[in-house]
Write a structure and sequence with these properties.
By secondary structure, the protein is mainly alpha-helical. The protein has six helices and three strands; from the N terminus they run ααβααββαα. It has one domain: Orthogonal Bundle (Arc Repressor Mutant, subunit A), CATH 1.10.10. InterPro entries: HTH_MarR-typ, MarR/SlyA-like, Transc_reg_Sar_Rot_HTH, WH-like_DNA-bd_sf, WH_DNA-bd_sf.
Length: 156
């Protein structure tokens, strides 16, 4: 189907799309503003710290990290550089592959994450979770899991 043959969105579909666009942008902006004001972290930086903290050795291959946080390798590399300047993360060579580079969460980075997490989780709860009924939370999880799976399967 080319652009001239597009199946235009009906009123309900357009309402769903616009609500998603507006709501997700406003939510990300609010959470980012709160994290930055209180802890000097962007939401993207926070997500990198979380992903690294979830690993048993607090390390992740840069390419995997980029895929996990849905950013380009160059954007993640830039973020890691900023996090390195604050001694929150460091790059280390991959032992099993001399060409591979790992991002590793430092002790200072872990402390920063532990400090920021309670406030961030409270913001997520206040600005999203507590606004939803339990069945709506399940629908949201189902819809976005399906979206993530679909988009990971799409060829770039």
């Amino acid at each position: 189907m080319n652009e001239r043959q597009a199946a235009w969105l009906d009123q309900g579909e357009m309402a769903a799309w616009r609500s998603y666009i507006d709501g997700s942008a406003l939510l990300e902006h609010r959470l980012n503003k709160e994290l930055h004001a209180a802890h000097g972290l962007s939401i993207a930086d926070y997500e990198i710290l979380v992903r690294l903290a979830e690993q048993p050795d607090r390390r992740l291959r840069m390419s995997k990290l980029a895929k996990d946080v849905a950013h380009s390798k160059s954007r993640v590399s830039h973020q890691i550089r900023r996090l390195e300047s604050g001694d929150l993360v460091r790059r280390v060579e991959c032992d099993s592959d001399g060409r591979g580079v790992l991002a590793e969460l430092t002790d200072k980075g872990m402390a920063k994450l532990r400090s920021a997490a309670p406030m961030h989780v409270a913001g997520v709860r206040r600005h999203l979770i507590d606004l939803l009924e339990p069945h709506e939370q399940q629908v949201l999880a189902t819809v976005f899991s399906r979206l993530v799976d679909h988009l990971h399967d799409v060829d770039d």
